[in-house]
Each structure stands twice: as C-alpha cells, then as structure tokens.
Design a protein that fits this description.
By secondary structure, this protein is an alpha/beta fold. The chain folds into 2 domains: 82 residues, Rossmann fold (3-Layer(aba) Sandwich), CATH 3.40.50; 134 residues, NAD(P)-binding Rossmann-like Domain (Rossmann fold), CATH 3.40.50. It is 40% helix and 16% strand. The strands form 3 sheets. It has a 6-stranded parallel beta sheet with strand order 1-11-8-7-5-6. A 3-stranded parallel beta sheet has the order 3-2-4, with helices on both faces. Helix 6 packs across helix 7. The longest helix has 23 residues. The structure holds guanine (GUN).
C-alpha cells in the first residue's frame, strides 16, 4: 500500500480563506480588526521561522500584528513586562509567547502572566483546565489543528483506537484529551505512550489513528504501524544535509518512506500539521476579537 498524503497546506488554505472572510465581515460590521501580539526572545532559528510565518499569515488574513523581539539575554522580568504591556494594548486580542524561552526563564511564570482572554495558544492553566472539563476556551493550536485535519479529511474517530506518542503540554496531553472528548473528532479510545512506555511498538501497532509528537526523528517506522492506519506526524526536526542550500532538511518523527507503505493516510513534513497550527492560531485570534466586539 502507498498512503494518501494528508495535505495540510491545502486544508489550511481553505480554512484561512474562511477566516479572512470573517475578519473582513467583523471589521465592516463592528470596526474591530483582530490583532495578535507576538513575543520572541532569543535567536532560536526554528522559532524565528515560525514567528515570521505567523506574522505573514496574520497579514494575509487581514489581521493586525505586533511583534516584540528581545535578546537571548532577556530576563524573566523583561518578558513578563512585555506580556503585561500587551495585556493592556486594546489593539491586541491575542498574545503569543514563542516557546522555548531562553535558558533560565521560567516558562510557566511567563505564560501565567497572559490574560486568559488573550491566551490564543490555550497554554494558561485557566484555558487548559477549561478544556479538560469541556467548557468554552481557546484550544491549543496544534492539537486543534490535528482534530480539524481529521474531521476535514473524513477520518472517523468514534470508537477507534487512537495512540498518542508524547505527553508534552503543547501537543501530547491536549490532543489525547480532544480525541477522547464526546464531540466531533473525538469519542476515540485513547492510549498515551511516552518515554516511560515499555515496548512502544506493541501499542503503536494497535492504533487505528497514530499521533506522533515525540520530538525525535525516526521514532516510528513502518514495522510499528498497523496496515491501513491514519498517521499524523507532528515532529519537525532539522537533519544536517549538505545537498540542501540551507545545509539541513526538515523531517518529522516518523520514518516517512517505510510508514507510507503501511499507512492509509499520512501527513508529510513539511506541509502537514504545521500549516494547520498557524491556521488555528488565526482562528483563536478571530474568536478573541469577536468576543471583544460582542462585549462592546
Ligand atoms: N513552540 C512550539 N510550538 C508552539 C506553539 O504552538 N506556540 C508557541 N507559543 N510556541 C511554540
């Protein structure tokens, strides 16, 4: 079998067109232009490219964006001060602090400084807690993007076995919750695997839907996948490659060549989950702006 590729770029473009139309409508009807504040501290090259992509996407959707860049020597107080200032900036409906932050900064303390109503990443304890108990909240962008992909690709999750590899706060834990909740794109039976799991393959081989967010290239190969499974590769790894102009190539957490022979649907890297993550950030920022407009 050769898997069909789940084209995140195409799905993201469809959703972004819908979002741009809503942004234009909101501006015309209420005068509110959705705005996103982005904070980048340090010079992590991957973070820099994500932030650039987020800002470009905001502009294309007709949103306002404001970026503050801090040096790698910035202190926790410096970053928190920018968050607090963005909390007060009425042009901004959402705030995103790009992670990871430079060494020595307590990420939790910085995230806790974001007003929950501007937390479009869904990282504050208030939003994470609301998601857990099924209340209205901002869903974290990568997990929400994955669910939207499954829904739009017509993948049935109800009653299926979903295996999540990885237990991060950003992807593994929340995507497992979304897959298990009683809602469209949910109702799955979910297993979470992590670095403490013994015999990973014995679990992944039973997955109808396999979500891989381990943070390491080649975590999963074709022998670890059930024939016909849907495989979502969340990893973005830079592998040195002298034949590429930048000196590296991007690859996911799964061994694409062997998994594509076994899976029925597979997300490529790049062009799979990544574009959906940014799309859900736009979606949440629009939602935050709509709430502000409704309260005016
Ligand atoms: N770093 C990696 N993924 C993310 C994300 O979704 N949001 C933020 N703020 N930082 C990240």
């Amino acid at each position: 079998m050769s898997a069909t590729l789940l084209d995140g770029k195409k799905l993201a473009a469809e959703m972004r067109a819908e979002i741009a139309a809503e942004v234009a409508r909101l501006k015309t009807e209420t005068g509110v232009q959705p705005g996103l504040g982005v904070i980048l501290a340090g010079e992590n090259p991957a973070s820099l490219s994500y932030v650039t992509a987020k800002e470009k996407a905001c502009a294309e959707a007709g949103m306002f964006s404001r970026e503050v860049r801090l040096p790698g020597t910035a202190t926790q107080q410096d970053v928190v001060a920018v968050v607090q200032e963005m909390n007060r900036d009425a042009r901004l409906h959402g705030i995103l602090v790009q992670l990871p932050l430079p060494k020595g900064i307590d990420e939790r303390a910085v995230i806790d400084a974001i007003l929950p109503e501007k937390d479009v990443d869904g990282f504050t304890p208030v939003n994470a807690g609301r998601m857990l108990i099924g209340e209205t909240c901002f869903l974290p962008c990568t997990p929400h993007g994955i669910i939207q992909m499954l829904l739009r690709a017509g993948v049935e999750t109800r009653g299926r076995h979903a295996v999540v590899v990885g237990r991060s706060n950003i992807v593994g834990k929340p995507v497992a919750q979304l897959l298990a909740r009683k809602a469209p794109g949910g109702d799955a039976t979910v297993t979470i695997c992590h670095t403490g799991t013994k015999d990973l393959a014995s679990f992944t081989k039973t997955a109808d839907i396999l979500i891989v967010a381990a943070g390491h290239a080649d975590t999963i190969d074709g022998s670890m996948v059930k024939p016909g499974a849907v495989v979502i590769d969340v990893g973005v790894n830079r592998v040195p490659d002298a034949t590429k102009p930048r000196g590296y190539r991007l690859c996911g957490d799964v061994d694409f060549d062997s998994v594509k022979e076994v899976a029925s649907l597979l997300t490529p890297v790049p062009g799979g989950v990544g574009p959906m993550t940014i799309t859900m950030l736009l979606f949440n920022t629009l939602e935050a702006a709509k709430r502000t407009a409704a309260a005016m």
